[in-house]
């Protein structure tokens, strides 16, 4: 059964144009080609990234955080209560007003104490500022080094300047050592991010991040197996061109360097929009979607590859909307840039203000509008009444 599935999955008509196949990618005459078996090297490399990350965060990122002045906010811990803890873990972290009143009767706490307990308990689960800084530092370091390495590997290649050159001689494109390591390290890094996603900082676009990591891993793996390596290196370089700027903006934001963060973010937003919303769809995808059809008839691998690129482009549009919204907010009001995807700590004072506002709304609904604390009655009656 497994043998039949393997034969069906790897059949040549799915992954190659008509007249071409796996035999064209066998090593010969000193020419080396990419092979699916090479991808097994990603597993130890990904585990190596996880180990190096732990060392980096302790020995480099933590001292750097202290140097830049990253300071932790003092968080008040919720006192342990088995009833509230069970409700928090098994039911919901955000109880309704009726649930708060029921919990108040069960525990003997006042309604305000119950609400305060849940605020403090939610804050305990939020990642610390140092954790966020160390994660951003690690990603910044990799993306910057990957961009420099990718640029060095492609700077003298003709397909960096003429995208149509990526298909010149396809599929018998010789694998270069620089391409091998660029691919393996990028793939191992995204695999390590997928492995560590459960322990990393969770943001509001968590699901989109999972989709992005999976699409990226599939895209890199597939392009390697069928020798779309030239296209793959261009796509990876294009993504690395802006990612390190975003991570550096986060680092300065966590350190409280608001102006530096804002200016880096504006530069990032400009590069992101140019690379992801202009170059990627109108140059890269044109040369993977439109131009190949002039060379050979479409096949399943062609649709599969471009389908993954479309998934990435949809994510680019989603993130571009968030980025533009933040950029306009800064340019119009000169406020500091805040990551809308991250949860903020809840304070007892802010919680009490929200409760008072909610109580005022309830009173307004019940008694009508108030004037100086007294209900305003409608005295606009006609004299005939």
Automatic annotation (TrEMBL):
List residues of the Homeobox domain: 84-128
Q: Which SUPFAM superfamilies match?
A: Homeodomain-like (SSF46689)
Alphabetized CDD domains for the sequence:
homeodomain (cd00086)
Instruction: Give the record's membrane topology.
Output: Multi-pass membrane protein
Keywords (A to Z) from UniProt: DNA-binding, Endoplasmic reticulum, Homeobox, Lipid biosynthesis, Lipid metabolism, Membrane, Nucleus, Transferase, Transmembrane, Transmembrane helix
SMART domains named among the record's database cross-references: HOX, TLC
Q: Which GO terms describe its molecular function?
A: DNA binding; sphingosine N-acyltransferase activity
- Give its localization: Endoplasmic reticulum membrane; Nucleus
Q: Give me any GO biological process, just one.
A: ceramide biosynthetic process
Q: Which InterPro entries does the entry link to?
A: HD, Homeodomain-like_sf, Lag1/Lac1-like, TLC-dom
What Pfam families does the record tag this protein with?
Homeodomain, TRAM_LAG1_CLN8
Q: Does the keyword Secreted apply?
A: no
Q: Which residues cross the membrane?
A: 39-56, 140-160, 180-198, 210-229, 263-291, 303-328
Annotation: DNA-binding region? 86-129
Instruction: Specify the pathway.
Output: Lipid metabolism; sphingolipid metabolism; Sphingolipid metabolism
Where in the sequence does UniProt note compositional bias of the Acidic residues kind? 345-357
For this record, the Gene Ontology CC terms, alphabetical, are: endoplasmic reticulum membrane; nucleus
Q: Locate the region Disordered.
A: 338-385
Where are the annotated coiled coils located? Answer: none
The UniProt record lists the TLC domain at: 131-332
Reactions catalysed = sphinganine + octadecanoyl-CoA = N-(octadecanoyl)-sphinganine + CoA + H(+)
- Keyword check for Repeat, yes or no: no
The protein here is known as: Ceramide synthase 2-like
